[in-house]
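Work package 3, deliverable 3.1, input record:
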Amino acid sequence: MEIFRLEDKITTEYSGHHQLSRFYHFGMGLPQGSEIQLDFTEAEWFDGNLCALLWAVAYVLKKNFGHLISTDEIEIKNRFDILFRNGFLRTGEVILDNRKSAVPIQDFDCSDKEGFCKYVNDELLSHRGMPALGKDLKDKIMEDLLEVFCNSQHHAGTSDPIFVGGQYYPKQRVLKFTMVDVGDGFLPRVNKATNGKIGSNLDAILWALQGNSTKLFFDKCPGGLGIKNMYKYCKENGGVLQIISNDGFWSSDLEGTIFEGGRVLKAPFIGITINLIFRKDL
Amino acid sequence: MKATVRNIINSSVAAFHSDGLQVFAVLDKNLKSKKHIVLSFDGVKHCSTQFLNAAIGKLYLKYSSKTIEEYLSYNLGIIPHLAEKIKEVKENALNAAEYDRLIERATL
């Protein structure tokens, strides 16, 4: 049995992603079919929404390497019960989300657009941690998230599921929502569509954020408006958008800092992760 | 003639590129034969721009705005902001067509 230790705080920022992608690389370095224990004893905090990413990492490690991942249930029940309350871990007993802070962790078949819409409507947009949104704004967020879901389905180059989940933090009055696909990421398509002009994951993210699209090149069809609209919503409503694609980590709250333009993850995961941070008080 | 999105894609969520292409095929056939068509969104609850780009935007890469507006009209159903979105998709498609022409000219 191999042990991977999570340390300190696993939060929705560069360091949290760094730890979870390190876990992926740890698993990649092991012989096929290894057993890995994910050890939380050194961890102080785990953002519940990042269970979507942890699930995606575990899924890929199992699918591609046949690894079996386990964890210490009692430790987690005592210190990180959110991982049970959001449905990421399950036991025979029913564990209620009595704090009503979790947005359930789920995976969606990439063709299950109806299921995804129902989830966004029932579990996210109706959550007590969301800002008081008018019907118009709710509709807009629904359409933008659907757009991101469609993009994942269309561009990822995989039929693997899409992992989602969220968490409301009442003290900070923010709700963090995470969506993960385990496909090719932005770069391969953007690199081709730009004749090699865009050569890094970070530049590919920035290219997509500007409203550019690879659709015209690959599908002879106009594209765009998806991720750009989400960015616009975040800017206008004090939210934060983070996009992580392979080794590129970009976050709207890094604008105006030395990391404006993004950071490079030393041990990247695959696919695209999108984190959205909504502020309850607009 | 009337074409109902829900019936063509067999879903109340018009979302994927592939959904849009199914609708595009119906519209394309009608525009080719210069028959007027009403595209109905009755029964559709959600609609993405990815769908609209493939169903309607793609038409603007093939036909002139004048032809499309002459032979295609809409029943927008209950989807909020749909008229606005179709307008946005049209503008985006016209820019894309122009972009495509520029690239073609530049690479001749």
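The radius of gyration of chain A is 18 Å.
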